[in-house]
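2024-03-11 09:14:02 INFO receiving multi-entity request
2024-03-11 09:14:02 INFO entity count = two
2024-03-11 09:14:03 INFO echoing inputs for audit
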Amino acid sequence: MMEMLQMLQDAGQGLLGPAWRTVWTLVKIMAIVLPVFGAVAYLTLVERKVIGYMQIRIGPNRVGYFGLLQPIADALKLLFKEIIVPTGSSKFLFVLAPIMALAPALAAWAVIPFSNGVVLTDINAGLLYLLAMTSLGVYGIIIAGWASNSKYAFLGAVRSAAQIVSYEIAMGFALVCVLMASQSMNLGDIVRGQHGSFGMLNWYVIPLFPMFLVYLISGVAETNRAPFDMAEGESEIVAGFHVEYSGMAFALFFLAEYANMILIAFLTSIMFLGGWLSPVPFLPDSFIWLLGKVSFILLLFLWFRATFPRYRYDQLMRLGWKVFIPITIIWVVVVAVWMQTPYWLW
Amino acid sequence: MNFETIVFYVFAALTVFASLRVITARNPVHAVLFLVLAFISSSGIWILLEAEFLAISLVLVYVGAVMVLFLFVVMMLDINMVRLREGFWRWLPFGAVLAGLMAFEMAWVLSSSKAFAGKAAVKHGADYSNTKELGRLIYTEYVFPFEIAAVILLVAMVAAIALTSRRRKDAKSQVIHEQISVKKADRLRLIKMSPEIHARENVDSTAEVAR
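2024-03-11 09:21:47 INFO inference complete, emitting structure
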């Protein structure tokens, strides 16, 4: 495998010279983005199937075997639909908004390590970069809500902006604990810091368990998923910020939401569940472990949606500001003190 | 002209263009979005200087949090641009003098000071962590100025909240702690009663229980 890659590298180098580096980077980007899109498409099917079974029905089962072609049918349908731009909307921003929502969701994948050394850009400020990229996603939602010139869209955008900004703080503090424990902001080093002879007991989920919960729940809130989907709130504000969008423009918001979900699942696995490391010492570390952990967290996302009723807005804000932020600040101090004692084993 | 110089000029041109549009855009929301563009392109320039911590935290703090709240406020306001532009020509000379003074000061400091003269950014290897160095400096050499700045910011925040938060007398709020810790005995009382015989009385007594 490695030799074949090396041969390909050499052939490209000979053929294209200095331009080869750009081409090779583009190839690597494609190798990340296309599977992400595929995963997004099939995550929608898995979601409908899982929620279906949880509600004792079958879910989509007409298009292809077990409904396996359903996502493709959905995508084709959305592609052929007309994109309606409302009168009185800000046209340029209306078109820009879905792109602004999707771009940061994909850009964040640049620093995700898939296995030991398998990462697009191995920068040492990876964690900061991720925080910056995930904080940019809110612009798509705000601009969409404002540019639509519709009151429901605007209400959804306002709700979502306040929610994301509030939960970002708790998320940031949870990551501060991780970076204190690993003493590095490089995601690869964070995973390698969780390597040890005790398998899963070496993962940061053990000393940072409250932070794991805070990060996971804030992640659900950040991606505007149920039970924190106030920004969409079908029963109150129709569909929130994307009510005026149709066709492919709507599909981009959908893609962004699911790409963000998968991203949060990857980040939780990398930072708390040991990334590609195997949970038991006698089995080899591999990418498959990472996929397993990610799938489990994605299942949690779907499970939450099938289980919990939607939060009320003031209680959502209370949870963010009065519960999560104090817990995270206290845990930062606890970890800082704990690390100075000989009882810090990680 | 190498690649880095081209990138620098692209980002610099973008920054200048975006900042000009911030003050010339008709729509305040567009102006805020141009300010976001200005922030992002100046963070690109910082990345070129290998100040990746500053660059990313500029995006994280200003673009990701401050400007979102800014946009939030600007979208809520009903701004009349005609009234805002009323005194433009009257205040232009004053503004021009102020801007000229600031530009002059900056040029003066940058050109005369020994600290900046003829020094390019020092290049470091890939294993050099900007963040670690910055953290080491802030928490050892500059720990007191840093803490004082933090306290001043905290005081400003508390003051702003104290000035604007007026407790309404008729506002109602939940005490969630009390709601969660409610027990069955607090809300429900079971009454033992003897069975009734007469039909008429029976109706009355069920009404009594319901009440």
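2024-03-11 09:21:48 INFO post-check: Chain A has a mean pLDDT of 84.
2024-03-11 09:21:48 INFO post-check: The interface with chain B takes residues 90, 93, 123-125, 128-129, 131-132, 135-136, 138-139, 142-143, 146, 154, 158, 161-162, 164-165, 168, 185, 314-315, 318 of chain A (CB under 8 Å).
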